[in-house]
Amino acid sequence: MLLWIAFSLMTGAAILAVLWPLRTGAGAAPEAASAAEADLAVYRDQLAEIERDRTAGLIGEGEGEAARAEVARRILRASAEVHATRAASAGNVGRRRAAALIALVGVPVLAGTLYILLGSPQLSPQPLAARLNARPEEADVAVLIRKVEEHLEANPDDGRGYEVIAPIYLRIGRTSDAVRTWSNAIRLLGSSPSRQSGLGEAMVADADGVVTAEASAAFQQALAQDPKDPKARYFLGLAAEQDGKTAEAAAYWSALAADSPVGAPWLPLVHAALARVGAAAPAPQTAQVPGPGAADVAAAEDMTPEQRSQMIRGMVERLSARLAEDGDDLEGWLRLMRAWTVLGDADKAKAAATDARGHFGKDDAALARIDALARELGLGS
Amino acid sequence: MNPEIGHYALVLALAVAILQTTIPVWGARAGDAALMRVGTALAIVLFGFISLSFATLVSAYVQSDFSVLNVVENSHSMKPLLFKITGVWGNHEGSMLLWVLVLSLFGALVALFGSNLPATLKANVLGVQGSIATAFLLFILLTSNPFIRVVPAPAEGQDLNPVLQDIGLAIHPPLLYLGYVGFSITFAFAVAALIDGRIDAAWARWVRPWALAAWAFLTVGIAMGSYWAYYELGWGGWWFWDPVENASLMPWFAGTALIHSAVVMEKRDALKVWTILLAILAFSLSLLGTFLVRSGVLTSVHAFATDPSRGVFILGILIFFIGGSLAIYALRAPTLRQGGIFAPVSREGALVLNNLLLTAAAAAVFVGTLYPLALEAYNGAKITVGPPYFNLTVGALMAPVVFAMPFGPLLAWKRGDLLGAAQRLMAAFGAAILAALAAVYVQGGGPVLAPVGMGLAVFIVIGACVDLAERAGFGRVPAATALARFRGLPRATFGAALAHAGVGICLMGIIAETSWNAERIIGAKIGQSFEVGRYELTLDRLEPRQGPNYRALVGVFSVRRGGADMGTIESSKRLFTARSMSTTESGIRTYGLSQLYVSLGDELPGGAIGVRAYWKPLVTLIWLGALIMALGGVLSLSDRRLRVGAPRPAKKPKPAAVPAE
User: Fold this and answer.
1) Domains, chain A, ranges and CATH?
2) What residues in A contact B12, CB-CB < 8 Å?
3) Which parts of chain A have pLDDT scores under 70?
4) Domain count, chain B
5) What are the two backbone dihedrals, phi and then psi, of residue B575, each rounded to the nearest 5 degrees?
6) Same domain, yes or no, for B452 and B436?
7) For a surface tag, which of A212, B159, B163, B653 has the fewest beta carbons within 10 Å of its beta carbon?
8) Do B537 and B421 share a structural domain?
């Protein structure tokens, strides 16, 4: 609102710049002389200068006389012109009104139209200092990443930090950073199925969807530790498909599909992959560029709204189950409250808030944040 | 400050500029004083809005507001404050905004101080200024908008090109723009006179100070750019005949011709039509420079913009203004009244010679710069027109200019006495010959032309002194009288002499540096000593250092001459992490007027590091000379100022400036 007031004031100033000089009565003071009169003034100055130079001895008598004669000729000519021309008219009312109208209408219309086409009035300024000092729940993803990065720069041996940021890197498309951070996490925390398959996935994304030999090795590592790891099996199937071994690929995927619980989020992806290699029918074009990003999007597009919300519900239920086992994760509780609210389940959100308060009964800071979020979400207290 | 305020101010500025283009000119055609007055208010308001817009962008940079795309692309939160600010114009969008800011500043100055101009002339001038502002504001808003926002905002910027993270960026582009855009005023005056069909006497009076100011800024701007390239690029060169450098040199030649022909016009009412053409050319060449740098048709260190849509847009602006002004010129110039007559040997004649040679030099640079581009566009052949071409053509054209330079001021107006002038320059001849002989003795073999050039340079400097002495009458009148007269000489006379001496001093530096420099390129290990010129350098140590947004490797050299300790030199290479780019920071130590220059190269196997060391005799004179030239221009300008309301007001009809000698 304040912004629009500022815009109107600025527009007003621009219009005033036209209207003010046009106001009646302003015409009386001749601001500038007519052309011939101005010429005369210049020539008189020149005469004075010649005179001064002559008295100072800078030019000789004869030179001075010649110069005077020349300037005098110019003066005669200019005087004749002064009589011939009359000074500019004070202006007529019709023209003034037309000019005023052009300014009154033209300025707001032109500036307004262009600004609406080009500007972003809905965006507020975002100085970096303010963003860095914002409370964690208000901070944007970029700033959070930056904070983790700064933390990792100061504590380069914090394996947990790498593990947290690696999937975020992958999601925002910084694939080489994702590969680097997964590798660091494995180096510092040791190998685990999820880390190995995370590393493999990042490598695939970094290679634009090609399952490279290194990526395959990572997935094999994951399988060695957990033969059921779904991500590793999916991507190893993809590797086989890219090598032209469709039978092997189909074997990986059918086994994966058979093992998966109903409603597992990766199932649609696996089914699509199976359809691609299983049937003799020509594969859809998008299948030619397999990649987690493209495949995920395709899978999500294929889902009905019910399936989609079911998938999200599944994720939220898992979070809830995890918190029930280990309730020390404040951020997790806050996320859960938010998630249930977004899904429209206010009762569960309230229950989550109550459970969270139970867990953090002695931690005032945590309680304050829980209460603040509850108020924000309209859960009462 | 909200970036959107700046964005809206810019859009509003466009609307104001369109009004400024139309209403005053309409008023001038209709003879309506009220409408003409509107131009004055609009020009001031235009400056206000563009300043607001620029200030908003600066504030976005200072606060690292990464929701503005331009800030993301060219800034970094860890950058020192100075480079955050200079980063505003260290990129295409911001530098164009600076360009229109300077343009509107000059427009506002005409509006504020132009009350003694004839009303129609002032209205037309402001109208032409408005049209230039309109074109460039459209260009900025449609193709190079610095206020584009990003959602979501990144948490860190991509940093400014490290080569530009230097104090040079704070100085060089603003000065260069003050010069380039300063010529827009003389251009506006020229086109206004053509539109009106008459050249007022006030015309020359206004054009000369503006041309002088623009010229002085351009001179310093070019010199600073040259010094910046000298210490930042690490090759020890100070002029590369790079197309972007040429782009600034062409308007300089045209502008130099303009300030001289404007004198003739002011004093003698002659060369009017020619002066108008030069005014058009000077600004056209400035626009061409902008086009070459901004369109990306060139690939050089300066061309940080490569976007064809921008190129086509600027080309359109170029065609409109240059083509349009030349068309009006062709139509109207024959109807303008020609002024006074003069003999070939006269002050006017000398200035005409100067003009012809300077424009020829501008043309030579123009051909050398654009011919390769035209050829490439025509049949795809890539050729390079190198320094030999430019040195030969520009050198051949400038030699007679500098030789004739001391003669010009000694010739009388209208008809002069060449023999008399030559006699009065005998002292300067003598000094020149002595200087040449001394140069032969010192160099003991070496380029034959070097002593000749040194003699010429001394001739110019002494010639400028002779001019002053002659005017004061030393030797002809009693010394006390001469001294009094000397003090009474107009500042413009001192300014001209100073500027001419500056040319000579610059020439000395150029000749000394190119003829007598010493170069040494070696791979040095720590503790190793080597000689360059008469100096002995020792690489004492190599040490890593951490800057705010870079890591540096610093080589510390100790300098000895004939066993005596001459201090140390630090030369470094900086690696900027955000862009993974490195820069060289040459180590330079000045001894008198000469410099020792050391830059670090790559690390070599076996612990050695590449070192380039140069001994550059009298090299600082190149830039000092340019500064002295500009100082002469400023002195000449101050003359005009101070004589407004000067002594003996009773004799004057109104306090107004007096054309200077």
Assistant:
1) 2-23+33-80+96-118 (no CATH), 141-279+287-303 (1.25.40.10), 309-377 (no CATH)
2) 10-11, 14, 107, 111
3) 24-35, 57-60, 82-91, 278-312, 342-343, 380-381
4) 3
5) -110, 120
6) yes
7) B653
8) no
